[in-house]
C-alpha cells in the first residue's frame, strides 16, 4: 500500500483530491457530473447518501433524472477492485449518456516520482487498459489494469492513456475535456503524462436500468490480468463477487455477537472494531492519515490478540512472521516492508518483548502449544554502531534458525539491561515512540517498561518451568523480583508512578517536572502486570483519575501537562503541538489500558462509564458532537485532541492499534469472555446497572447461546454456569463442534 500504490494517496483532508473518478454526462443537455460528491457535485443535487459497511461503500444519489447507485468493494480472493454503478432512468424520455472512468496511475510510492516511467497500452483481447512501471524493481513485471464494461455491449468504448487529453489544457477534474469529445483518441504508450481513461456511451430507455462496472487491479503478468478482467465481466459474476465479500465478513464478524444494554457498545463489538483490525491494521496497513504498508513490530503483534475467536489462525501466522524479523541478538526490525524485507534496526526497548507477550497470549487462548516448537529463521544484519540510534540495515534471512520458544527467550534476555536505578533501559524509546531522547546515552530508564518486562518475565518463567527449562525459569523469576523492587524504590513519586529517568538521572512523569508530571501508562501497567502493590495501585489510579480523565471533554489523556519547553528534551513527542497525538492528547490505545486497569480492580461501573466516554459512536450522537469530533464515528481514532482550540476533535482515524485493544477491553474485560484452550470462560466485570447480557458464539457448526444474569447487580461475582441445563463444577465451558445449538447460562453470585 505504500511502495506499489495503484492510484494516489493524497493525505490532504482540505482539498481531498480524488485519484479515481467515475463521470456521467447528459449528452443532450451537456451537463457533466459524478455520482460521488467529488469532484463534481451535481448542481440540482439532492443528498448523496454514503453508507460504509464491512467490505463495501455505497453511494446513492438522484440527479438529472437518473437514480445512481455506486457500490465499491474488493474481491475476496483476487487483487481486483470492483465499482458497480447502477443507473436508472426516472423520466419519460430515453436518455443519451456518457460514462467515463478516469484514474491516475501511480504504480509506486508517488505519482511525481513514477509518472515518467509509466507505460500504458490497450489490450486487444479484453479491451482493458494496461499500465506498468518497469522502474519499480521491487514489484517486477506487475501489470495494472482498468476495464469498463456495460451490462449490454457498449455502444462505443474509447480510451486514452494521456492525462492531458482527458483533463484538457487549463482544466481540472471538475470539468475534464475528455467527456466533451465524441471519442477518446486511443493514445497510449510511454512518455505521456499517464492516466487511464475509458469512455462509453449508452442510451437508457424510460424506466430502464443499466449496470456499468469499472475494474481496477494489478496482476503478476499479462495472462493473469486478462484472466481477471474476464472473470469479473458480466453482471452475474460481479453480483457473486460482491455477495462473496459480504459472506466473508459476515462469517468472520459473526463468530461472536453480543447484546448488551448499550447498543453503541454492541455495534462496535459486533461489526466495526474487528473489521478495523483486520481490514485496516492487519491487511491494508493503510489509511487516510498514514499509508505505511509496513508491519510495525509491536503493532500487529498486539492487533492479532483480538482474533482469539474469529481468526486465531491469522494470529499464529503473524506471530511466526514477526519472529522471522528477529536478529540472533534478540532485537528486531522495528518495522519492515514485507515485499522487500527492508526495515530498521533500532534501540527501541520494548518492541521485541511483544513477541513473547503475543505468543503466550495466543497459546493460552488456543492451547496450541505446538507453536513453541516451530522452527523460525533469524535475520542476519550488521549491528548498530555505538553512536547509532537506528539504521536501515540490509537484512537477509540467516542460515540460523531456532524454535519460537528460543526466539522468545532471546527477546527476553535482550531486555535484561538495566540502568543506575536497576530499572530497564529505555533506549531510543519504548511503547511511546516519541520519547526517543530520554535514554540515547544508554543510561535512561523506563518505569513503564519495568512493568511490561516483569509481566513477561513472570509469565515466561512459568512456561519455562513447564518445559523443563528450570534455569531460565529461575533466572527470570529472580530478575522479575529485582525489577519489582526497583519499581517500588525508584518508580514511586509519592502519589503515582514516575514514567522514566533521563540519561542524566532527571525523573520524567514526576511532580518535580513542569510538563508531563504524570503519564497514564506507568499507572495502568502497574495493574495490568499484576506487579504493583494494591494500595499504591489504588493511589496511582486515583491520581490518574484526577489529572488525566476529563469527563466534561470526553477525554482520557495520555499524560499531562503536555510537553512544550521541557529540558531535557524527551524526543520528537515534544515536536507535536501540545495536546495532540502522544503529546497529551487522548491517545486511545493507552486510554483503553486505563479501562482495563479499572477492570483489573473490579470496578465495572467506572470501566463501563469510561468505555462509553470514549466510544466514538457517542462522539457523533448530536450535530454539536459531530461538529466537534469531525471524523468517522464508526472506527476508533488513534488520538483525540485536548489542545484548547480543538478540544474533543478526532485525530488520526482507522490505522490505530486501539481498535484491537478496544475490542478486547469490551469482550474480554467488561463481558469477561476469554477463549481458553478447547473452550471459554466467562468472568464479567459489569456496571451495576446492567441486569446482564447475552451473546452467541459460533464454533464450527455449533452455536452457543449464552445468557449472563446478574440478579444481585454485582460488578464482579462468582459465575455459576450451566450448559444445556447441567451445572458445571467450574466455569470453563468446553466447545464442541457437534452442529448443535447449546444454551449456556451464567449467573453471577456473591463470593
Ligand atoms: C504508534 C506506533 C506504535 C506506538 C504508538 C505510541 O501507534 O505505531 O508502535 O506504540 O504510536 O507511540
Which helices and strands appear, and what pairs or packs with what?
Blueprint: E1 20-26, E2 32-33, E3 49-53, E4 56-63, E5 66-74, E6 80-89, E7 95-103, H1 111-114, E8 119-122, E9 129-132, E10 143-150, E11 156-162, H2 163-167, E12 194-204, E13 209-219, H3 222-231, H4 235-253, E14 256-259, H5 263-284, E15 295-296, H6 297-303, H7 312-323, E16 333-336, E17 343-346, H8 354-366, E18 375-380, E19 390-393, E20 396-403, H9 404-414, E21 445-446, H10 447-466, H11 470-491, E22 500-501, E23 507-508, E24 518-519, H12 520-528, H13 534-548, E25 549-550, E26 555-556, E27 559-560, E28 586-587, H14 588-600, H15 604-614, H16 623-629, E29 639-640, H17 658-670, E30 673-676, E31 679-682, E32 692-699, E33 702-709, E34 718-723, E35 726-727, E36 732-734, E37 741-749
Parallel strand pairs: 33-37
Antiparallel strand pairs: 1-2, 1-7, 3-4, 4-5, 5-6, 6-13, 7-12, 8-9, 9-10, 10-13, 11-12, 14-32, 15-16, 16-17, 17-19, 18-20, 21-22, 22-23, 24-27, 25-26, 28-29, 30-31, 31-36, 32-33, 34-35, 34-37
Helix pairs in contact: 5-17, 7-8, 10-11, 10-12, 12-13, 12-14, 14-15, 14-17
Bound molecules: alpha-D-glucopyranose (GLC).
